[in-house]
Amino acid sequence: MRLADRTAFITGGGRGIGRAVAQAFAREGARVFVVARTASEVESVAGEVRAECGEGAAAHAACDVSDPRSVEEAFAAARAFLGAGPDVLVNNAGVADSSKFTETSDEFWRRHLDINLTGTFYCMRAALPPMVERGWGRVVNVASVAGKTGAPYVAAYTASKHGVLGLTRSVASELARTGVTVNAVCPGYVDTDMTARAVENIQAKTGRSAVEALEAIKRMSPQQRLVTPEEVAALALLLASHEGRGITGQAINVDGGTVLY
Ligand code: NAP
User: Fold this and answer.
1) Do 12 and 104 reside in the same domain of the chain?
2) Same domain (yes/no): 114, 242
3) What pLDDT does 116 receive?
4) Does the annotation mark 261 as catalytic?
């Protein structure tokens, strides 16, 4: 049990990578608090975790990470359930839409920055003081290989994820002597609803079939496949564990070798 007696706050926990992280952490003994905007989805994930790992293993709240008051309320609810903490924060909530750069609206730009980057900031600001006080904590920011590279039609998403890496590195160095580590994981294309939407988008824009669009995405990886949510969760688990204590300020790819730095 690598997370025995630990507690975790997981954003974007209603499906995809966040759901896999909640399950992986709870299986290793953590009590998890999952949040996202869609209450029914986080309620369902918390129920799945309780059914597998026990009645006290999970709770949930609706939370929009781009709204600072919503974040404060969710952390208050998490502390009431978890008793203190959390020991581990996984900033996984995110959105990814595409737009020609010259057609990118203020709303589109702000939505990506507000959720992906500022939401990560709000949650770190709420979670870190008790971690520093206790002298133990883990922050895992789910960024993307888009945090390291550039690609057409995803400037807002890419800028937000580059920002997450800057935030991660800076706070990691600031807290290096406190017992708190701060890292990012950088997935390539993962088999989730987000990638399903990318497939639909390619279909709509290019007239390709769903199979052709998915194959084009898979071919971007040298392994010619999508990463699974469980692979991302396994990396997050390592970073959250005692064994990961020497790893901080890093941005680790799980992308089948697409990006080699
Ligand atoms: P997903 O299936 O679309 O899930 C995204 C999760 O984030 C959902 O639970 C969603 O719930 C939540 N969320 C979105 N906006 C939110 C907000 N304002 N406040 C709180 N929760 C919010 O996507 P995924 O593939 O699991 O992606 C998870 C993370 O991995 C994202 O940060 C994404 O950028 C990153 N990532 C994904 C891929 C990929 O290929 N899928 C690749 C690299 C990185 P609600 O909509 O109900 O709020």
Assistant:
1) yes
2) yes
3) 99
4) no
d(CA 235, CA 143): 13
Using the mean position of ligand 1's atoms as its centre, give its distance from the Cα of residue 194 in Å. 7
Structure tokens at 139: 């922050």
Q: Let me know how many helices (H) and strands (E) the chain has, helices first.
A: 9, 7
Residues 100, 204 share a domain: no
If asked whether residues 146 and 21 sit together in one domain, one would say yes
Q: Is the dihedral of CA 79, 80, 81, 82 positive or negative?
A: positive
Cβ atoms 13, 21 nearer than 8 A: yes
Which range marks the domain in which residue 206 is found? 189-226
Are 196 and 215 members of one domain?
yes
State which ligand 1 atom lies nearest to the alpha carbon of 70: 19
Average per-residue pLDDT for the chain: 98
Ranges of residues in the chain whose predicted pLDDT is under 50:
none
> Does residue 40 form part of some domain?
yes
The verdict on 14 and 80 lying in the same domain is yes
Ligand 1 atom closest to the Cα of residue 65 is: 19
Q: Which helix (H) or strand (E) holds 91?
A: strand 88-91
pLDDT tens per residue across span 106-144: 999 999 999 999 999 999 999 999 999 999 999 999 999
State the catalytic residue, choosing from 122, 153, 157, 261.
157
Which residues have C-beta within 8 Å of that of residue 124, sequence separation ≥ 6?
A: 89, 91, 139, 167, 171, 182
